[in-house]
Write a structure and sequence with these properties.
Elements (H helix, E strand, L loop, with lengths): L20 E2 L20 E2 L5 E11 L4 E7 L7 E10 L4 E9 L2 E8 L5 E12 L9 E8 L6 E8 L6 E3 L3 E5 L7 E8 L4 E8 L5 E5 L5 E6 L8 E6 L3 E5 L3 E3 L2 E9 L4 E7 L4 H8 L5 E5 L4 E6 L2 E8 L6 E9 L5 E9 L4 E4 L3 E5 L3 E9 L3 E8 L4 E8 L6 E7 L11 E3 L5 E4 L5 E4 L17 E8 L3 E3 L4 E2 L2 E10 L3 E9 L10 H5 L3 E2 L2 E3 L3 E8 L19 E7 L18 E4 L8 E7 L9 E9 L16 E10 L3 E2 L7 E5 L4 E7 L6 E8 L6 E8 L5 E6 L9 E8 L2 E11 L56 H14 L5
Parallel strand pairs: 1-3, 2-10, 11-17, 19-26, 28-39, 35-37, 42-48, 50-56
Antiparallel strand pairs: 3-8, 4-7, 4-9, 5-8, 6-7, 9-10, 12-15, 13-14, 13-16, 16-17, 18-20, 20-24, 21-23, 21-25, 22-23, 25-26, 27-29, 29-32, 30-31, 30-36, 31-34, 32-33, 36-39, 37-38, 40-41, 40-43, 43-46, 44-47, 45-46, 47-48, 49-51, 51-54, 52-53, 52-55, 55-56
């Protein structure tokens, strides 16, 4: 059993603040002016386990290390058992080579970064002070130094572990009896009200204290002298309730398992050991836990901080052999202990790519899926020596669905300032870790650093998934390789452009590309106020064009624009400016492959009614530096013309310029508009004549081709009644016409039946030749596409139909310069 006092005047020694400077041609040294000896805390004597913290700062240049030594050998009758080290202030620092020997603790602090940084170091020293006596109380010093220095002193006191109101069975405590006289006696309090006590033993004082071993005590006690009960020192000894249980009976290698510690005590230290596991293996399991204190190499154990309800997460790596292990948990300063068994099984880890070949055009986003079993982390290497390119990404399956899908931006993959990796599921993680590749043999060449001077070229790029970042540069081999695949990057192309329309609204008003495609119809005319949708069919640009950045349409060698078709003589065509306030980008390769859509609010653009414009998309531009995907001084360009019209509605009128409505319970009103399919239109019939006044109103959506059909009940209105018909849409009048109610005309049947059936020739409908849009052999300046009309009252297309129409349109409507 190991013992310490929960009242221990802890333990936390020598708050030593030091700066260690390492550099070329200099020797690291501790700055004595930063030592604050008065802040050193005390250590209690008579304890099987007592801890003490030493805190200081060290400043190191990039890629420099410093060996720290803490000397405690002048503390009498004490044994230094272990040292634990924590760092705060920088993620670039690490600790290694911890050891204790003959009262001296040593460890190395390493700055793994490139720049000089300062980190706060906290060293936790674990002592056995059970042999230290009360006559050893007094002031002592610690010596802390770095490489090549004599060290600095920090003073602290060895103190008694004074009794408190409640102490726990097994602690070694000290009662302050400096105010008592005569023979001293330890007695159990049977009844305080009657001062009834029971003799336990005589005790002797040293330095004004008596030491009390509480292993066999449980209850209320008093140390009395000549002054009797009222002048005695009272205290309580209670049993510490304690349990330790693994949350699961078994765990596989390279997985984690929780250890549950419960107790009636709020603050204590547990020593953990297991048959068959050495100190290094135990530190591997518990060293990353927040409760970890230190490792005892001699006893093959680790120390953990704990409280009333503590959960410690243990990492079970494949460094620990499979098997059944009996773990012992001993509170270091009381009699409380427990044990539990954990079964560690061999790892059944499996990491694979979802397919053997991923094909994508250069410049696009390549989506790659890695499937994981019995693990939630993997590393993927992209490229290798044969393509003079190497990049690495760490994947974490945070949503525990057994896979991670990430995108690799083949356009930014060569940009040293960009991270080309992005996770598809927001719950998972993908982090570029090329700079962390651990080269085991050879050196990574200048071109094998994930960054090349030009854009990535077409070719086969190896995909290798591993559990490790270790890489043999001499052999171009990834250590612990789990699976391989190929990313086949092929040439890109610019294929076509077309215009579509959608009802008025905000440019970013669609939830996604799928909803957009359900709401559009193809057209080369757009009513001012409706939304214009420009569809571009081009591969190799998804890595350039960002849905959240409208400016990405006009940079990095690509350009989408709108300009006047014909400005007339002696004038240049005017470009129409747009921005994120009146335009939005939609792109979803799973819905419309190699296509993106730009939605414009036409009433927010500088467009004129009854004017023709050209929408165009180009890659590269003659006379300018262009991206590598297009030859220098060349460009790829596609364009299409569209006309902006004043919103209107057209009604068929009779010879008297009146719109006729039949007197009926279901009288039909039908007309055409130039609004986009799905637009909301209101139709109102109104008469103010004194003997036949009425008001009828309906709201209806336009069909895909802009037509409107609605019905009214006019059966109570006399034939010949005149009225006004008004059509509104998009917030303005589309038509105002005169109307008249007419009677329906019913044909009169023949009075003479036909006795003999008439023999007639059978007429067969012969289809006539139908004109179709056929691409000409010679490209024209403007690429046009055949409009598609959908019947019925529902505008737009289903996604499958829409995408099919888009692809068909692309074949009919492609122009390339």
């Amino acid at each position: 059993m190991t013992k310490t006092n929960d009242m221990r005047a802890l333990l936390m020694a020598a708050l030593v603040v030091m700066s260690v400077f390492a550099g070329v041609g200099t020797v690291s040294a501790i700055d004595a002016s930063t030592v604050d000896a008065d802040s050193a805390e005390n250590v209690a004597v008579g304890q099987d386990t007592a801890t003490q913290k030493v805190t200081f700062e060290t400043t190191l240049d990039g890629d420099e290390s410093e060996q720290i030594t803490i000397n405690t050998d002048n503390i009498p009758n004490s044994d230094l058992l272990a040292v634990g080290v924590t760092l705060d202030g920088s993620e670039n620092f690490s600790v290694s080579d911890k050891s204790v020997d003959d009262g001296v603790a040593e460890f190395t602090v390493q700055n793994n970064g490139d720049d000089q940084e300062t980190v706060t170091v906290t060293a936790t020293l674990v002592y056995d002070t059970s042999e230290a006596q009360l006559d050893d109380l007094g002031e002592y010093n610690l010596t802390v130094d770095g490489d090549g220095t004599d060290g600095e002193l920090a003073s602290f006191n060895l103190t008694a572990n004074e009794v408190g109101s409640v102490n726990f069975q097994g602690e070694t405590v000290h009662a302050d009896v400096s105010s008592l006289s005569g023979d001293l006696v330890l007695r159990e309090v049977v009844d305080r009200s009657s001062e009834d006590t029971r003799f336990i033993s005589q005790v002797n004082a040293e330095n004004g204290y008596v030491e009390i071993d509480t292993d066999d005590l449980d209850g209320d006690y008093i140390v009395m002298g000549d002054g009797g009960f009222d002048n005695g020192v009272e205290f309580e000894i209670a049993e510490q309730r304690f349990s330790a249980n693994w949350d699961e009976d078994s765990v596989t290698q390279n997985d984690a398992v929780d250890l549950e510690l419960e107790s009636s005590r709020g603050d204590y230290i547990v020593e953990v050991s297991a048959d068959g596991l050495d100190a290094d293996e135990l530190e591997t399991m518990f060293g990353d836990a927040s409760q970890y204190v230190a490792t005892n190499e001699e006893d093959d154990s680790v120390y953990l901080n704990a409280g009333t309800d503590t959960t410690v997460t243990a990492d079970v790596t494949d460094d620990i052999d499979a098997g059944e292990y009996d773990f012992d948990f001993q509170v270091t300063d009381t009699t409380a202990s427990d044990s539990d068994t954990l079964e560690i099984g061999e790892e059944n880890r499996n990491i694979d790519f979802s397919q053997s070949t991923y094909t994508e055009e250069v410049g696009d986003l390549a989506e790659i899926t890695v499937q994981m079993e019995d693990t939630d982390q993997a590393y993927v290497f992209v490229g290798g020596e044969d393509v003079n390119y190497l990049e690495a990404v760490r994947l974490s399956d945070e949503d525990d669905d057994g896979e991670v899908t990430f995108s690799f931006n083949t356009f930014t993959g060569s940009d040293e300032s960009a991270d080309p990796f992005e996770v598809v599921s927001e719950d998972d993680e993908a982090e570029m870790v090329t700079s962390d590749i651990d080269v085991t043999e050879g050196e990574i060449g200048d071109n094998l650093d994930g960054k090349v001077s030009n854009l990535l070229e077409s070719g086969d790029y190896d995909l290798r998934v591993s559990t490790s970042l270790q890489y043999n540069a001499d052999e171009d081999e990834v250590e612990d390789e789990q699976d391989v695949a190929v990313l086949d990057l092929v040439g890109r192309s610019t294929n076509g452009i077309s215009t579509w329309t959608a009802p008025s609204g905000s440019a970013d008003g669609f939830d996604d590309t799928e909803e957009l495609l359900e709401s559009v119809g193809q057209s080369d005319t757009v009513a001012l106020g409706d939304r214009l949708v420009v569809r571009v069919n081009a591969s190799g640009v998804s890595g350039i064009i960002d849905e959240d950045d409208i400016d990405s349409l006009q940079q990095n060698g690509v350009y989408l624009g709108i300009e006047e078709s014909d400005a007339g003589a002696n004038a240049d065509e005017e470009s129409i400016p747009f921005d994120g306030g009146n335009a939005a980008i939609y792109r979803d390769e799973s819905v419309a492959e190699n296509q993106f859509f730009v939605v414009f609010e036409t009433d927010q653009l500088d467009l004129d009614e009854d004017a023709e414009y050209e929408a165009y998309f180009r890659v590269g531009e003659e006379g300018e530096d262009v991206i590598d995907y297009v030859d220098e001084d060349e460009e790829e360009r596609v364009s299409t013309a569209f006309t902006v019209e004043e919103p209107d509605a057209t009604l068929d009128l009779n010879d008297d310029d009146q719109y006729e409505v039949v007197r009926s319970e279901e009288a039909t009103v039908q007309f055409d508009t130039n609004l986009a399919g799905g637009s909301e239109v209101s139709v109102r019939l109104r008469s103010s004549e004194s003997n036949s006044a009425f008001l009828l109103s309906n709201t209806v959506e336009t069909t895909a081709n802009g037509s409107v059909t609605t019905t009214f009940d006019t059966s109570d209105i006399d034939a010949g009644t005149e009225f006004d018909i008004n059509v509104r849409g998009g917030g303005e009048d589309l038509a105002n016409e005169d109307g008249i109610i007419i009677n329906v005309t019913t044909p009169t049947p023949s009075d003479t039946p036909m006795d003999t059936p008439m023999t007639t020739d059978t007429v067969t409908d012969t289809p006539t030749d139908t004109a179709t849009d056929t691409p000409t052999d010679t490209p024209t300046e403007t690429t046009t596409t055949a409009p598609t009309t959908t019947g019925g009252s529902t505008p737009g297309f289903g996604v499958v139909v829409a995408v099919t129409a888009l692809l068909a349109a692309a074949l009919l409507a492609t122009r390339r310069d």
